[in-house]
Amino acid sequence: MRLELLGEQRLDDVAALLGDRDTLRFTRIPEPPPAGFARTWLARYQSARRDGTAEAFAAVDDDGTFVGLALAPQIERASGEVELGYITAPAARGRGVAAWMLRELTSWAFANGALRIVLIIDVANGASETVAERCGYTREGVLRSIHVKQDIRVDAAVWSRLPTDP
Q1: Cα separation of 78 and 24, whole Å?
Q2: pLDDT range class, residue 26, cuts 50, 70, 90
Q3: Residue 78, domain CATH
Q4: Residues 57, 69: contact at Cβ < 8 Å?
C-alpha cells in the first residue's frame, strides 16, 4: 500500500465514501452530505495544503485500488500539535488498512515536526479505538457530549502520541 496526495483523481472515491453509513456515523462529515460535498472537501484540503494547516492522502493498494483516506485535518505549526484521522473504504475493512494508514500518518507527522499527535474518536467506534491502541496511542480521556455534527452530540475519546512514546 502507499499514500498519495489527495487530488481530483480520487474525487469519485471520496464521493463513494459519502454513501457509507459508518463513514457518516463516525466522522465529522455532515449528514446528509450537501450536494457537491466531495469537491468542496477536496478544495478545502488543497487550500489548507498550501498554507500548511491540513493535509489529506488517499491510501491505495498495490494495484492502485482506493482503500481509504489518511487525514491531518488540523496542523498547528506553532504548537507542534497535529490531529490525525483515517477512513477505511468499506471493501477494505478488516484487512489492517486503518492501522497501516495511522502508522504511516504518524511517521509523516513526526517527520514534519509534530510534537504531539491527537486522535478524536467517537467512543462508540470500538474498531477505531482498537487501531489507535495498536498503533501506540494513549487514551487520555473522554470529551463528553462534544458537538460533532448538526444536532448530534457524542462522547469522543482523545488519544495522543508523542515522539518520545515507544
Answers
A1: 31
A2: very high
A3: 3.40.630.30
A4: yes
Instruction: Give the whole-angstrom CA distance, residue 144 versus residue 14.
Output: 29
pLDDT in tens, 45-91: 999 999 999 999 999 999 999 999 999 999 999 999 999 999 999 99
CB-based contact 27:37 (threshold 8 Å): no
Give residue 108's pLDDT.
98
Q: Is residue 165 part of a domain?
A: no
Q: How many CB atoms lie under 10 A from the CB of residue 46?
A: 15
Domain of residue 87: give its range: 2-117
- Residue 76's beta-bridge partner residues? 81
Total domains in the fold of the chain? 1
Residue 43 CB coordination number (10 Å): 12
In a domain, 74, yes or no: yes
CA gap 11, 34 in Å, rounded = 15
